[in-house]
Amino acid sequence: MTSICHVVSVSGGKDSTATLLLALERVPREQIVAIFCDTGNEIPITYIYLDDLERHLGIRVHRLKADFSAEIAAKRRFIARDQRTNREYQRVPVLDVYGNPVPSRDSQGRIHYRTVIRKGIKQQEIVPKMRKAHGKKVRWSNKAKRRALTVLQPTGNPFLDLCLWKGRFPSRMAQFCTEELKRNIAVTFQLDLIDHGFSVVSWQGIRRDESQNRRNAKRLERIGPKLWAFRPLVDWTAQQTVDFVRSQDCPLNPLYSQGQSRVGCVCINTNKQGLAQTAYRYPDEIDRIEDWEWLVGQASKRGFSTFMCDADDRKDRRAIFADLNIRSRVEWAMGGNGTMDLFADVPIDIPVCASAYGLCE
């Protein structure tokens, strides 16, 4: 009979802690393997909490880290050898004096048409005439090469190394950090177990009410041969997970008593209040991010990169960086020039204990 291994992904947050407690209740302890995918971008108290959780539950949490040394080395080689001389252009429609697209024509003056399918119905539409716009050099300039090659060295920090490799920080539209730092590492670990003859059940602390992307999450799902995903919290609310963990006399991450509604790496998903709380309680984290912005900017062809990316159509990268760098974001979050009225335009007064889950009552 093939052995079953129950892999529980632990992040240090309430949902993963509740999932681990449920696993310990339902399956033999010797079949449970708890893993923590370390992004290298966690608030330090989370690492302390994981140590406390191990002692409290008497179970080891395996620390996993991504390594991007090979990718950074490949990027160094590419930049050093880049000799491209062409330019890339964005193509935009040609408009007439009334602002309408000008149709594309062949040498005989006949309008070009193309077939499209809309709502299941094939239609013929006019092909617009296009022109080149917003040209940019493809190759790395010699100045940019020197700048990037100076900093492009593995640091051992997964998050920073990932951003050095990409030449940018993650954003809402390109949230590659989750895949590269968590999902891929966890899947590789589980596939290794399968290669050693185990069937794997991956316990995941996912709730349907977390986001639109998770609203259809299944409780049990077959991912592949000998690999299943089990999500026992899909119907739970955030408050239910907190109440369950407390009912088990198990500690919660102290960040939940410090105004954080979510626990995880400081990133684009951090809300205004969370950023303000982090800056107030852990100012060294903001210093670290500021250093990272400089390093990743140096590794970027553009020369600038902001930790919390926002859409901005301006061409002057210096102006964008001045408005969106981490110091400016912290000033906005703490009310210096905020627009969301979180702190009602008064000096921020953060209490010793602040919780969205009633932990201070």
TrEMBL record:
<feature type="domain" description="Phosphoadenosine phosphosulphate reductase">
    <location>
        <begin position="199"/>
        <end position="266"/>
    </location>
</feature>
<dbReference type="GO" id="GO:0003824">
    <property type="term" value="F:catalytic activity"/>
</dbReference>
<dbReference type="InterPro" id="IPR050128">
    <property type="entry name" value="Sulfate_adenylyltrnsfr_sub2"/>
</dbReference>
<dbReference type="InterPro" id="IPR014729">
    <property type="entry name" value="Rossmann-like_a/b/a_fold"/>
</dbReference>
<protein>
    <submittedName>
        <fullName>Phosphoadenosine phosphosulfate reductase family protein</fullName>
    </submittedName>
</protein>
<feature type="domain" description="Phosphoadenosine phosphosulphate reductase">
    <location>
        <begin position="6"/>
        <end position="70"/>
    </location>
</feature>
<dbReference type="Pfam" id="PF01507">
    <property type="entry name" value="PAPS_reduct"/>
</dbReference>
<dbReference type="InterPro" id="IPR002500">
    <property type="entry name" value="PAPS_reduct_dom"/>
</dbReference>
